[in-house]
């Protein structure tokens, strides 16, 4: 095992870990279904921005690689992709609606730090109707779950085999 000195995270580079899709297919299919339901009715560009930001925060290289590639395929610009991690300093790259979603993504992803502040929630609620907000929140929950699956099972960035 090697240690990443920046985060003290343990990275396995020897023994393979469990493949959740093969070992718990019913659970895996449920996650896929939850993810698909969460995306319904949301702008695909917004979906990718949310997934990219959560993946940054969770240090999930596997998901970050996957979702930046998905965003590019969907027509997202390199400029915006480079600015997601520093969106507060580069607000002009993002709409107010996207900024509200990114702030909510950060609050929910880092929920143990300070909960979800009322002002962050209120800002999101001002930019999304109730159904959209429920889907944004659900998407944030799903990407956080996927990040944890990828990190727990030591998925390697660049090995996504989806078609």
Account of the 3D structure:
With 163 residues, this protein is mainly α. Helix content is 63%, strand content 2%. It has nine helices and two strands; from the N terminus they run ββααααααααα. A two-stranded antiparallel sheet has the order 1-2. Strand 1 and strand 2 form a beta hairpin.
Keywords:
163 residues; mainly alpha; two-stranded antiparallel sheet; 9 helices; 2 strands; globular; disordered N terminus
H and E order:
EEHHHHHHHHH
Helix content: 55-70%
Q: Quote the average pLDDT.
A: 91
Spatial ordering of strands, largest sheet = 1-2
Class by SSE composition: mainly alpha
DSSP summary: helix tally: 9
Q: Total strand count, please?
A: 2
Q: Rough shape? A: globular
How much of the sequence lies in strands comes to under 5%
What distance separates the N and C termini?
31 Å
Main beta-sheet annotation? 2 strands, antiparallel
Q: What value does the Rg take, in angstroms? A: 16 Å
Model regions low in confidence, pLDDT < 50 over at least 5 residues: 1-10
Write the layout of secondary structure elements.
Blueprint: E1 2-3, E2 10-11, H1 20-23, H2 25-39, H3 44-57, H4 61-73, H5 78-83, H6 96-109, H7 111-114, H8 118-127, H9 130-152
Antiparallel strand pairs: 1-2
Helix pairs in contact: 2-9, 3-4, 3-6, 3-9, 6-8, 6-9
Summarize the structure.
The protein has 163 residues and is mainly alpha-helical. It is built from nine helices and two strands; from the N terminus they run E-E-H-H-H-H-H-H-H-H-H.
């Amino acid at each position: 095992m090697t240690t990443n000195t920046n985060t003290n995270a343990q990275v396995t580079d020897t023994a393979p870990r469990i493949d959740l899709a093969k070992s718990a297919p019913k659970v895996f299919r449920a996650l896929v279904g939850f993810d698909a339901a969460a995306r319904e009715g949301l702008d695909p560009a917004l979906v990718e921005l949310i997934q990219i930001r959560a993946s940054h925060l969770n240090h999930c290289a596997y998901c970050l690689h996957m979702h930046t590639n998905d965003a590019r395929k969907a027509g997202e610009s390199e400029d915006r992709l480079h600015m997601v991690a520093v969106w507060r300093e580069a607000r002009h790259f993002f709409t107010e609606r996207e900024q509200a979603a990114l702030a909510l993504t950060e609050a929910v992803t880092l929920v143990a730090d300070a909960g979800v502040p009322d002002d962050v929630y209120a800002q999101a609620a001002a930019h999304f109707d109730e159904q959209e907000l429920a889907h944004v929140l659900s998407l944030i929950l799903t990407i956080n779950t996927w990040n944890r699956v990828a990190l727990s099972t030591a998925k390697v960035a660049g090995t996504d085999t989806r078609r």
